[in-house]
Amino acid sequence: MKKYLLLSALFLLFGEHIKAQNISDLLYDLEGVRFQAIEGTSDKYRLDIKQNLDHTDPSKGHFYQRVIFTHKGFDRPTVMNTQGYYVSDRPNEIALICEANYLNIEHRYFGTSRPDSLDWSYLNLEQATADLHHINQLFKQIYKDKWISTGISKGGQTTIFYRYFYPDDVDVSIPYVAPLNYNMEDQRIYEFLDTVGSEACRKKIEDVQFFLLKNRKEVLARLKWFAQGQGLTFRYLDDSLEAAFEYAVLEYPFSFWQWGSKCEDLPTSGILDDYIQSLVDIVGLEFYGDASMTLFAPHYHQASLEMGYYGFRTEKFEPYLKVLSGHPNASFPPKGVNYNFDDSLNKKVMTWLDKSGDHFVYINGLWDTWSATRVRPKKKRKAISLDLPKTDHGQARVRNLSEAQKTAFSQVMKDWLDIDLDYSVLSSK
């Protein structure tokens, strides 16, 4: 009898703790969560989480949102990666350096996280951030320590909007290379392209654009065979290879700076194939093909609705353009939907960041075109901006911060979260 009472007492004291060590048991208890262990890993799962299509009206139906989840410990912080697009199984810097539990969340309407019938009216930031809030509240039943949200590019934008709608869900937000645009054709993009790098480099970029346009007949003849070989179609552009060509030429400087191309690699030979290859390498004709347009239709929908985007100036090139004119936009939203861009949410978020945007760490590369519309936190806010000189969209990462920047980052994370960062786990490449 005494032995039985002792065992009972031990169970009362430690039973819940013992149970909590089996994360799969706890996943079973989460309502609306389907999960499967990822083969060959330890405590890593593929989740499908039931989400309301309309969080204000459950009767509108539901879909399942894909999440890749990694468990590290019940006494560890938790990182939410607020993807702007499709989920991938790549490591996350913030989760690694914090040794954190990790929720890598696919954005609604991307990948497998799509309702059976795509009603575009439910793809907006209020609904998308409500998805994130639901996941946060589910997993806060398991994880009681500190919470961090982070995301890259459009995912970084989502991080910012998520914190605006749900300021108490996480303790710190870390958006990477995340623009916050004023309107559908943000003029700061043009100012950036007029001043970034050296004047000589900007002139070489413009020379490539002029060369391609002046030799359009020969260029289009080669691009026609290239498109056929790649199986590219352009129904979104009314079956116009010429339109794809002109868009790609106008896009050339934006992509050049966004993705860190090198001025010394720009063609100057006068050999046509060198210029075409540069266009294909830096922009890619497939970027304007139907497969790409379909893949990124949800992104273009959000840009055209409320997130804003960028356009192209054509004044210098008008004599050589046959399809495009004025300031065509770079967004290609789904056809059949009426778009009337509304900048009211962006303005509200900007005002909120100025007044209440504390515990943010912004990471940007100053040679990335999207840095033109980055958030610049007010000095009175408890927020820092880690800007990497001469760095592009893909290289503006924690692993590439200077030692002084890493020290500053470590200090705020210690102050705000009482977390020590371990940079040794990051690759230097």
Describe this structure as you would to a colleague:
This protein has helices at residues 2-20, 23-28, 93-98, 125-139, 154-165, 187-195, 199-214, 216-230, 241-258, 272-282, 290-295, 297-307, 344-356, 403-417; strands at 33-37, 44-52, 62-70, 78-82, 101-105, 147-152, 172-176, 360-365, 383-388. With 429 residues, the protein is α/β, with parallel strands linked by helices. The chain has two domains: 31-182 and 344-425, Rossmann fold (3-Layer(aba) Sandwich); 196-320, no CATH class. Strand 6 (147-152), helix 5 (154-165) and strand 7 (172-176) form a beta-alpha-beta unit. Helix 4 (125-139) crosses helix 5 and helix 7 (199-214) packs antiparallel against helix 9 (241-258). The model is unreliable at 1-20 (pLDDT under 50).
* Widest sheet: strand ordering: 1-2-3-5-4-6-7-8-9
User: Which shape, going by the Cα principal axes?
Assistant: globular
Number of helices: 14
Overall number of domains? 2
Q: What are the salient characteristics of this protein?
A:
429 residues; alpha/beta; Rossmann fold; 2 domains; 9-stranded mixed β-sheet; 9 strands; 13% strand; globular
Compile the SSE list and pairings.
Elements (H helix, E strand, L loop, with lengths): L1 H19 L2 H6 L4 E5 L6 E9 L9 E9 L7 E5 L10 H6 L2 E5 L19 H15 L7 E6 L1 H12 L6 E5 L10 H9 L3 H16 L1 H15 L10 H18 L13 H11 L7 H6 L1 H11 L36 H13 L3 E6 L17 E6 L14 H15 L12
Parallel strand pairs: 4-5, 4-6, 6-7, 7-8, 8-9
Antiparallel strand pairs: 1-2, 2-3, 3-5
Helix pairs in contact: 4-5, 7-9
